[in-house]
Design brief:
Mean pLDDT: 85
Strand content: under 5%
Number of helices: 6
Largest sheet: none
Shape: elongated
Order of helices and strands: HHHHHH
Number of strands: 0
Distance between the termini: 18 Å
Structural class: mainly alpha
Number of domains: 1
Low-confidence stretches: none
Radius of gyration: 18 Å
Length: about 140
């Protein structure tokens, strides 16, 4: 397995997911400046947190689209046959799951939540990998 491609593919999935948070950060920052109030990073982050809580269901829907989309792109870029592609997506999923330990270290999630997140990652691998098998050519 090529390590550079492996890191690239993990970054694709993570950046697609992070793009949702980046969008909300930019949106709230622009809104704060347009309101004419004094703006600090602390205020923006607090507003972002409140917005994410208020839009919890919608935000989760965006994540449920972005993560399989990332695995779909990674599956298409790998171009391997069915078995190799699914194994590779599994390795990428494990890499993402291990990186999520940072959330546990930062106390943003519990160890139990992190352990059970492997189930959702597995589902997203199946969805994204299945789409890549349906839409992208495999090498023979």
């Amino acid at each position: 397995m090529n390590k550079k491609l492996y890191v690239r593919d993990i970054a694709i999935v993570i950046l697609l997911t992070a793009s949702i948070n980046i969008f909300f950060f930019i949106w709230i920052t622009i809104d704060a400046f347009n309101s004419g109030n004094a703006v600090s990073l602390k205020t923006i982050l607090e507003t972002m947190l409140l917005t994410q809580i208020a839009l919890g269901g919608i935000l989760q829907l965006f994540y449920m689209i972005a993560i399989p989309l990332g695995f779909w792109i990674v599956g298409c870029l790998s171009g391997k046959d069915v078995k190799e592609r699914l194994f590779y997506l599994g390795y990428v999923g494990i890499g993402i799951w291990l990186l999520e330990l940072a959330y546990v270290a930062l106390k943003l999630t519990s160890m139990a939540q992190w352990l059970f997140s492997i189930v959702s990652i597995f589902i997203f691998i199946i969805l994204g990998g299945g789409l890549s098998l349906l839409t992208c050519k495999t090498k023979k």
